[in-house]
Design the sequence.
């Protein structure tokens, strides 16, 4: 078969596989603060996830994996990949996956502010990045045009607005904007350990995507064109 679909959770996406981007991919473009833009992609993504979560969340319930497993699942979207020489390249969906990486960084920061258990913070940190033999950070979604921006927001202390360098590229500026948008959105909602932990488990265990792997490299350009030029 030319394409192979697989059901994955957000938790399955990050933690063991580094994603690469090919030359034809666009820079990170999601930004809710563009003048005269009515559609806000980041807020829409968060609204969709929280709508389903809020239908199930009960403030007085025990929070554990078994409880969250009874929450209604949510289908976020699909993304497309192609594996070459052991490396997984994103054909379509890198905007969404990058946003999920930024979301995880924000969750990690909020967890630190709420002083949640170290094990839960380490769980989140492992969904953001790994470290190589030289001790350098390796982001699972760390494409060259966004590594510096991801490092900057990762290293920004909780409750501190990120400083945008004057030399920042468009992709980097959008990452900084996305970080602040997500931070502002979540801080008012995840304001105690109970709801924080419930949402953390829900996001990584009950939010699903369809991973579509394109077998043949020669078909990648065709798939990318169909998805992006024809709106499919």
Sequence:
């Amino acid at each position: 078969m030319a394409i192979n679909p697989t059901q994955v959770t957000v938790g399955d996406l990050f933690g063991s596989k580094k994603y690469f981007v090919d030359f034809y991919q666009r820079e990170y473009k999601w930004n809710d603060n563009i003048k005269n833009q009515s559609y806000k992609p980041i807020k829409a993504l968060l609204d969709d996830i929280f709508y389903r979560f809020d239908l199930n969340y009960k403030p007085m319930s025990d929070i554990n994996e078994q409880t969250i497993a009874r929450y209604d699942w949510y289908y976020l979207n699909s993304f497309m990949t192609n594996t070459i020489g052991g490396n997984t390249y994103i054909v379509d969906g890198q905007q969404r996956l990058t946003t999920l990486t930024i979301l995880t960084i924000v969750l990690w920061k909020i967890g630190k502010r709420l002083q949640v258990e170290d094990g839960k913070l380490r769980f989140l940190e492992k969904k953001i990045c790994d470290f190589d033999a030289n001790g350098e950070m390796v982001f699972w979604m760390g494409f060259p045009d966004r590594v510096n921006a991801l490092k900057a927001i990762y290293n920004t202390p909780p409750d501190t607005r990120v400083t945008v360098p004057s030399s920042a590229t468009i992709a980097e500026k959008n990452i900084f904007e996305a970080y602040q948008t997500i931070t502002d959105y979540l801080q008012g909602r995840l304001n105690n350990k109970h709801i924080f932990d419930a949402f953390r488990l829900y996001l990584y265990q009950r939010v699903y995507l369809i991973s579509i792997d394109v077998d043949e490299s020669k078909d990648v350009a065709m798939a990318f064109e169909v998805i992006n030029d024809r709106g499919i």
Q: What stands out?
A: The chain has a mean pLDDT of 90. The longest strand covers residues 74-84. The first helix runs from residue 10 to 13.
